[in-house]
UniProtKB/TrEMBL annotation:
Protein's recorded name: DUF4806 domain-containing protein
Region (Disordered): 156-187
Superkingdom, taxonomy of origin: Eukaryota
Length: 362
């Protein structure tokens, strides 16, 4: 009697069980992220780690995505990160597109037909105000690699220029070679530097621009943290509310600092002006009724970071109506229009102006 068929079936079962365990382990990061998001809300660093790992995986079981509602989570993050912009929003958009394609069994590595996919999205997310036709569904994996390449170039440039106390005096070949040897850059970084030097030389003006960018980033982040810290002394925010305020203030302060730096062309004056804005806003939101109303509108999503830029410095204070001012305006109107002045009449026992006829005479 032969037991080979039973052995082969047993081996297949073991193989499939091991394979299933491996799939579960490889997809565990999806479950952990979904749980952390439901407990703590959106956290930028955790999402970046999740998004990069998710985009780098070639095989993902759609059942995991459906069970943990990843398309809906990524859609929400994509919407919420629109005010942040940059790498986070682009990564969230790619995660949403890839998860959607996997759930609906679409081959996300093939250049799909945009129109048919966007129609499907509209049917899944009815009544949504997001314009899905702006999404480019073609070549999602290529789009992700381009995004990573740009991020790598940006990080390389920051490492190259941020920590230098003075701009380079000359850009000769020998100086460039010395810089490469000292920095210990990889071959990829060297290629990026060569491409840059071929296009245009690194001069003092370019260095100052990079220096200003790094200063802007560190300055607005410190002001955002300070503003949040002051508001948290007066209000008990939830984790989601903190994340909401953080993203709105990030957008607001980022553009405010750049705007004031362009207007004033002086770092010290920019610091002074922005500090004044942050100070006034913190006091206004903490102590004034209209400031608390503004804070409530921000938390409810009625006011975005860009909308907040429309507020002037004088708007961060409560408008008070002065009785004396009203009296001055009223008296000036009476002087300009004497017909408005009325007097008690002894004849007819009524109030009328001097120029009106008396009722007794009528």
């Amino acid at each position: 009697m032969s037991f080979e068929p039973e052995k082969s079936s047993l081996m297949e079962k073991l193989y499939h069980s091991k394979l299933f365990e491996e799939i579960n382990k490889s997809h565990q990061f999806i479950e952990l992220f979904a749980k952390d998001y439901s407990d703590n809300g959106f956290q930028e660093e955790k999402f970046i780690k999740f998004g990069e790992r998710f985009m780098s995986k070639n095989e993902i079981d759609n059942q995991f995505l459906i069970y943990h509602q990843i398309p809906f989570l990524s859609y929400k993050i994509m919407k919420d990160s629109m005010c942040i912009g940059g790498y986070v929003h682009q990564l969230a958009t790619l995660v949403f597109k890839k998860s959607f394609c996997i759930v609906f069994n679409l081959n996300w590595t093939i250049k799909n037909d945009d129109n048919s996919i966007t129609k499907r999205i509209k049917s899944v997310f009815p009544g949504c105000d997001f314009d899905f036709f702006t999404l480019n569904m073609r070549g999602i994996h290529l789009e992700y690699y381009d995004l990573k390449k740009k991020a790598r170039k940006t990080s390389f440039k920051r490492r190259k220029y941020d920590n230098k106390p003075t701009p380079p005096k000359s850009n000769t070949e020998s100086n460039v070679n010395i810089e490469r040897e000292e920095s210990g850059s990889s071959s990829l970084d060297c290629q990026i530097l060569e491409e840059k030097s071929d296009d245009d030389e690194i001069n003092i003006q370019e260095f100052s621009l990079n220096e200003n960018e790094s200063w802007c980033d560190s300055f607005w982040k410190s002001k955002r943290n300070l503003l949040l810290k002051n508001l948290m002394k007066h209000f008990n925010f939830t984790v989601q509310q903190k994340e909401k305020l953080s993203s709105v203030f990030a957008t607001y302060l980022k553009y405010l600092v750049k705007k004031k730096l362009e207007e004033l062309v002086n770092i010290k004056e920019t610091e002074k002006t922005v500090n004044n804005y942050v100070y006034k806003m913190a006091i206004f939101m903490a102590n004034k009724d209209s400031g608390k109303l503004l804070l409530k509108k921000i938390l409810n999503g009625e006011i975005s970071g860009k909308k907040l830029l429309e507020y002037k410095l004088g708007d961060f204070c409560e408008k008070k109506t002065s009785f004396a001012t009203k009296e001055i305006i009223y008296n000036s109107e009476l002087l300009n229009k004497p017909a408005l002045q009325t007097f008690p009449c002894k004849k007819c026992a009524t109030m009328h102006s001097k120029y009106d006829s008396c009722r007794r005479d009528d």
